[in-house]
């Protein structure tokens, strides 16, 4: 009895009839969330480990098709972005969103003469989330079913099994009609009559996706052609015995007389014979031989009448006629030869425009080649190749002038109520990486082998010694900058009215300035790419002249700039927004900015790292270090400070990031060195993305005299005392004791007034170590803000500097 593969199980005719005719629960049953990155990863791993005994050539094709890099390239080329299935803004000046969405259930009807095509077609439709029902040809083996059974056993994505079915149905069966009636789309391969017959069975609401027969030809321009050129052209005719749609059935020669046409035929015939000898004899059936004999007899008769000529040698034939027309061939090494001129190209090809596929164009020089290309493209030819390459293809090439993923999907749109901005909508979080994967640290990240996909190199550390480098492909970079751009809209940047000056640091492989330049470009925002230059007067002059209202930059640099230019900027009065990154503003600094400049809007431009990219964004209801996770780009774990297990509730822990879509480097369970906590409960903005609060660097929590102390705690106490400047903590040894020096920055010769005893008394652990146990020496020092120790490349202030020879934690 026939067996059908039905969404993970083998069923007989009776069970299949029940599913299609009566039990339609399978249509409405919830399916695992479709995540394209997980599907790609699953297909890649499965194909490379495939042990089934299958044809070696097809196995190579399957491995290439399922390769993660190739699938990503296909997805990006055909749909524009790997995030094409995510609702994203049409532009950044409104609340309209669009995305690609699957058609739903697609039934595939394919020929049986290409082993494995049915399986690849189903996988192709699956890539955009469709459910594929494949009608297997009566002549097809069980290969597709065997592959599918093996695939679902090794599917790590969890969402493939519920989207694939392979059925052995007769073309006129009641069950096929039922499957077609339940389908949202039908993809069919075949000739005109077969496609018309299938289409007649469909309702007007069903999307019909035909892949019809095509015809290809070669064209040889005037002038003598080299032996090498003619050999390549003969290869195109003979290689697949004209069985491929891209094989030439006809050859057009630019000529003026029958004598020129026949002279070319006599010259070209030996090249065809030579190519045929290399290929070996054909194995034709009676129908194929009869068709060739019939066409040959017609041309012999026409030759006797002086209307054509017929050349044959060793089972290779050229059928020549002076009428400029496209004429299908009986195939199998039978070439139609016709004249053509530049003046009649459109006329000759006009009625064939829907059938045309490939032209192999042979010319003498590039100028002539381009001239013919323009004529052929305008006449409807979708594919032009050099001789010898007609049946070849490149990765991601459209099929018959169309992209399959576009045809297997539709565009959906929605409009959100005005008032709130969203990063993305209705998206499911990425699948969290397996806990079996060990945590990555900085060394693990840096010691990865170069994948060969890197285009961008950014410095991610190494202030002393060899610089640490983070690598990105262009796809990595632009998808991450797009995520950061989306986040800026949520935070409150308005590209339609805000005018931005980019004051981030740049150069020396530092990515801040370049990244925000790209981010603002993606938003189509007005920007001044200034950089963190030292000429504060020049910056202010341009802010005033070009009516800038929004500052982008590092808090330490912005604070210095605002202090220096306070009088001029207050007189201007046009600054209304500040977006910062890389560090955070203390509450004291925020209060000072509000008081001095009446700027209430101070938001994080993006939270991220050079290694992992943008991790979080703020919304109108986010304050301080609270961010939403870029959950369609990153996954986040918050682990205990000392053990590799999840924190409980809103406890503080280490931030562990994974970026599944990263190409140039692996970012999986990477300890990025930051501390934070989950912010539980829904956000007022309505975003489904989880929230977390940044609480400093892992190094900001340090051990001194046996006690754990936090830079953040010092910041809070200093802010309560009215200190709004920068400060850093220096740890060293004072004899046999640890020494903690709190260095306060100041400018204009005005030392801040701070009560050191108040600081000691407010921090319990500090008081015990200094006052009760006498194990820690504490001192309060002052320094001009401009000479505090900073990271050279980025200008970031070093919060904690540990100079101790032993006992570093």
Based on the model shown, name its key terms:
single chain, 809 residues, alpha/beta, Aldehyde Dehydrogenase, Chain A, domain 1, Aldehyde Dehydrogenase, Chain A, domain 2, Rossmann fold, 5 domains, 7-stranded mixed sheet, 25 helices, elongated, disordered C terminus
Largest sheet: 7 strands, mixed
Query: CATH superfamily name of the largest domain?
Result: Aldehyde Dehydrogenase, Chain A, domain 1
Kindly report the CATH topology of the largest domain: Aldehyde Dehydrogenase, Chain A, domain 1
Q: How many domain modules? A: 5
Which residues sit in consecutive blocks of at least 5 with pLDDT less than 50? Answer: 805-809
Ends apart, CA distance between termini = 70 Å
> How large is the count of helical segments?
25
* Whole-number mean pLDDT: 89
Q: Over all CA atoms, what is the radius of gyration?
A: 35 Å
* CATH level-two architecture of the largest domain: 3-Layer(aba) Sandwich
**Silhouette:** elongated
Q: Tell how many strands the DSSP assignment holds.
A: 37
Instruction: Find the structural class using helix and strand composition.
Output: alpha/beta
Taken as a percent bin, the fraction of beta residues is 15-25%
Helix content: 25-40%
* Overall CATH class of the largest domain: Alpha Beta
For the largest beta sheet, what order do the strands appear in spatially?
2-1-7-6-5-8-9
């Amino acid at each position: 009895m026939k067996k059908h593969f039905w969404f993970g199980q083998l069923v007989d005719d009776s069970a299949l009839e029940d599913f299609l005719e009566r039990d339609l629960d399978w249509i409405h049953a919830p399916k695992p969330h479709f995540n394209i990155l997980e599907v790609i990863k699953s297909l890649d791993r499965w194909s490379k480990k495939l042990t089934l005994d299958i044809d070696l050539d097809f196995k190579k094709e399957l491995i290439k098709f399922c390769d993660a890099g190739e699938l990503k390239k296909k997805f990006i080329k055909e749909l524009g972005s790997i995030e094409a299935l995510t609702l994203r803004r049409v532009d950044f000046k409104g609340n309209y969103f669009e995305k690609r969405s699957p058609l739903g259930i697609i039934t595939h009807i394919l020929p049986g003469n290409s082993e494995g095509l049915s399986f690849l077609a189903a996988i192709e439709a699956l890539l955009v989330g469709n459910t594929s029902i494949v009608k297997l040809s009566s002549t097809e083996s069980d290969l597709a079913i065997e592959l599918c059974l093996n695939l679902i056993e090794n599917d790590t994505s969890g969402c493939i099994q519920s989207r694939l079915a392979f059925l052995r149905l007769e073309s006129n069966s009641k069950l096929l009609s039922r499957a077609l009636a339940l389908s949202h789309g039908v993809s069919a391969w075949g000739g005109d009559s077969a496609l018309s017959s299938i289409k007649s069975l469909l309702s007007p609401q069903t999307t019909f996706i035909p892949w019809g027969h095509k015809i290809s030809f070669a064209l040889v321009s005037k002038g003598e052609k080299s032996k090498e050129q003619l050999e390549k052209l003969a290869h195109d005719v003979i290689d697949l015995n004209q069985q491929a749609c891209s094989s030439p059935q006809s050859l057009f020669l630019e000529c003026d007389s029958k004598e020129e046409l026949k002279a070319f035929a006599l010259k070209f015939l030996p090249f065809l014979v030579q190519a045929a000898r290399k290929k070996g004899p054909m194995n034709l059936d009676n129908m194929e031989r009869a068709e060739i004999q019939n066409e040959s007899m017609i041309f012999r008769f026409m030759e006797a009448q002086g209307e054509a000529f017929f050349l044959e040698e060793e089972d290779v034939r050229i059928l020549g006629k002076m009428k400029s027309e496209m004429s299908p061939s009986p195939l199998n090494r039978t070439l139609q030869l016709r004249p053509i001129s530049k003046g009649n190209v459109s006329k000759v090809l006009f009625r064939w425009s829907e059938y045309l596929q490939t032209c192999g164009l042979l010319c003498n020089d590039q100028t002539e080649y381009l001239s013919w290309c323009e004529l052929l493209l305008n006449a409807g030819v979708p594919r032009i190749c050099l001789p010898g390459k007609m049946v070849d293809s490149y990765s991601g090439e459209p099929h018959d002038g169309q992209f399959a993923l576009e045809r297997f999907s539709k565009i959906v749109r929605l409009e959100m109520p005005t008032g709130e901005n969203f990063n993305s909508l209705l998206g499911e979080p990425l699948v969290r990486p397996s806990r079996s994967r060990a945590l990555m640290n900085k060394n693990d990240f840096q010691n990865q082998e170069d994948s060969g996909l890197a285009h961008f190199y950014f410095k991610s550390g190494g202030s002393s010694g060899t610089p640490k480098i983070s690598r990105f492909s262009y796809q990595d970079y632009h998808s991450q900058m797009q995520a950061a751009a989306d986040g800026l809209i949520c935070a409150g940047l308005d590209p339609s009215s805000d005018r931005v000056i980019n004051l981030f640091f740049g150069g020396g492989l530092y990515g801040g300035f370049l990244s925000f330049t790209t981010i603002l470009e993606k938003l189509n925002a007005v920007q001044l790419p200034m950089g963190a230059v030292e000429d504060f007067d020049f910056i202010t002059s341009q802010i005033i002249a070009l009516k800038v209202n929004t500052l982008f930059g590092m808090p330490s640099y912005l604070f210095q700039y605002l202090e220096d230019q306070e009088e001029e900027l207050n007189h201007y009065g046009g600054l209304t927004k500040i977006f910062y990154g890389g560090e955070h503003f203390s509450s004291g600094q925020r209060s000072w900015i509000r008081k001095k400049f009446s700027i209430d809007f101070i938001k994080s431009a993006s939270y991220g790292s050079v290694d992992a990219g943008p991790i979080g964004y703020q919304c109108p209801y986010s304050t301080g270090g609270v961010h939403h996770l870029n959950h369609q780009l990153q996954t986040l774990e918050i682990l205990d400070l000392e053990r590799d297990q999840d924190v409980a509730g809103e406890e503080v822990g280490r931030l562990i990031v994974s970026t599944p879509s990263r190409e140039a480097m692996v970012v999986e369970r990477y300890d990025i060195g930051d501390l934070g906590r989950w912010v539980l409960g829904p956000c007022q903005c309505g975003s489904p993305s989880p929230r977390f609060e940044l609480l400093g660097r892992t190094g900001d929590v340090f051990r001194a005299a046996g006690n754990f102390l936090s830079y953040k705690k010092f910041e809070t106490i200093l802010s309560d005392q009215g200190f709004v400047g920068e400060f850093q903590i220096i740890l060293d040894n004072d004899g046999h004791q640890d020494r903690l020096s709190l260095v306060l920055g100041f400018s204009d010769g005005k030392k801040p007034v701070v009560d050191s005893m108040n600081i000691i008394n407010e921090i319990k652990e500090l008081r015990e170590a200094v006052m009760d146990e006498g194990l820690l020496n504490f001192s309060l020092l002052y320094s001009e803000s401009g000479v505090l120790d900073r990271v050279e490349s980025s200008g970031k202030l070093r919060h904690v500097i540990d100079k101790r020879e032993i006992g570093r934690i």
